[in-house]
């Protein structure tokens, strides 16, 4: 299992006034030291300080520098005792300038910095090899993407996603430190092995990054990680199998080259499992890590070119495509062959087994068992709307959904006032409303919630009539806008499903209003955050 350095938002830890910053060690482009620095770039600030974790106030050329995260753990280079991930301000002066850091009233000596207009770099490696770029076949920043590797190469003309930094301002301009969707003002160019690639889009990534390398790691599923971009391009035609340098150019400034593997798919057409993730919170599962009671997104090469994103469940076979747990077929939720994805329900049962993906051309397997000693293991993920951050919240037993007016307009949903209970509509929730929320990865669920009771049998669905309710053995704790929810009337497998959990609760009094009020759901060993609109 990969190890990730813990990162948190700017901590509120206060230390004595005697602690001070001794020196600024380095300020490095998050795409690599060879890429230089520019306004708006995501960068890593290394410090040698007597007060690791104490609040920092950073300035460059007289402009404030927002801190986007602070490592609180280990793995710092020699001579470094503290780090901060920052995004340089757009109005930082070009050319030679200096950076200072103030901690507990003591300011460091000026650290010389040189800024250019652009400083493009391709975000680091996924496998510890610094010459390998972070390329994927789906959105780079979901944490759920199958990587481009030597064993799963990109083919000529195939669409590839890559993470980048240093591409300059967006339209509209997004203030540093914020993660908001916006495209770059000037589209960059991409070459693969010196051959121009067609760039389809370039803009701020709209979900969070999951990048692991030899030095640092990020993982999560919040709003866009500030200062990071996603560039989507098609691999040029006519390339032979092999490894090719990719160069990203913006405004006459080019990134250091990183390699991408180009090749052709298995001519036999046999499927190959590339990645397995929690479909709700995008958590990437290593081998032997998948959690019982989860809706899985399985990324598979060489899927037949069929697409059915709804209406399959609870069928266990579609156009010869099956997912087996051992020898038992699992219920399918959706299949997207062109994008290599199958969504499937893994029931909340606890026995060891392997996952198999079967197509008319063959099968591929993925080892799975419940981690030893973790019989109550969960991986809570709230089912989301298409924006990836807003939860699906049904209101008062109707088809109405809790969402803002602007989000409702994106889905062409009418306001709920005057609508019948069966009409899909939208409005903000309010204190006292009964809300139904859906989860994946809820962990053990048994008849009546008895810790010693039997889980739903593999291959079966919870009775649709609710004659037997499979309740979560460890119901989640929920807060809405920081206010604890005390009125949970049901938490268990949704009747008629196998791996979709339903939680019914009442919005507590005193919740703040707003279009993005955080809902934090905490299980026994996991937590997830989504957003709800409250009037």
Question: What is this structure's SSE topology?
Answer:
Blueprint: E1 7-8, E2 21-29, E3 42-49, E4 57-60, E5 63-65, E6 67-71, E7 82-87, E8 95-103, E9 106-107, E10 111-115, E11 121-122, E12 135-136, E13 159-165, E14 170-171, E15 183-184, E16 189-192, E17 195-204, E18 211-212, E19 217-218, E20 229-234, E21 242-250, E22 253-254, E23 258-262, E24 272-278, E25 284-285, E26 294-301, E27 307-308, E28 322-325, E29 328-329, E30 332-336, E31 341-346, E32 353-359, E33 362-368, E34 381-382, E35 393-395, E36 400-402, H1 405-410, E37 425-427, E38 434-440, E39 445-447, E40 470-472, E41 477-480, E42 483-484, E43 488-493, E44 501-506, E45 514-522, E46 527-534
Parallel strand pairs: 36-37
Antiparallel strand pairs: 1-6, 2-3, 3-7, 4-5, 4-8, 6-7, 8-9, 8-10, 11-13, 12-13, 13-20, 14-15, 16-17, 16-21, 17-20, 18-19, 21-22, 21-23, 24-25, 24-26, 26-31, 27-30, 28-29, 28-32, 30-31, 32-33, 34-38, 35-38, 38-44, 39-40, 41-42, 41-45, 43-44, 45-46
Please provide a written account of the structure:
The longest helix is centred in the last third of the chain and has 6 residues, at about 405-410. The chain is globular, with a radius of gyration of 24 Å. The strands form eleven sheets. Strands 11, 12, 13, 16, 17, 20, 21, 22 and 23 form a nine-stranded antiparallel beta sheet that branches. Strands 25-24-26-31-30-27 form a six-stranded antiparallel beta sheet, with no helix packed on it. Strands 1-6-7-3-2 form a five-stranded antiparallel beta sheet, with no helix packed on it. Mean pLDDT is about 80; it is low at about 1-20, about 125-130, about 140-145, about 205-225 and about 370-375. It has four domains: about 5-115, Immunoglobulin-like (Sandwich), CATH 2.60.40; about 120-260, Immunoglobulins (Immunoglobulin-like, Sandwich); about 270-370, Immunoglobulin-like (Sandwich); about 380-535, no CATH class. About 0% of the residues lie in helices and about 40% in strands. The protein is mainly beta and about 525 residues long.
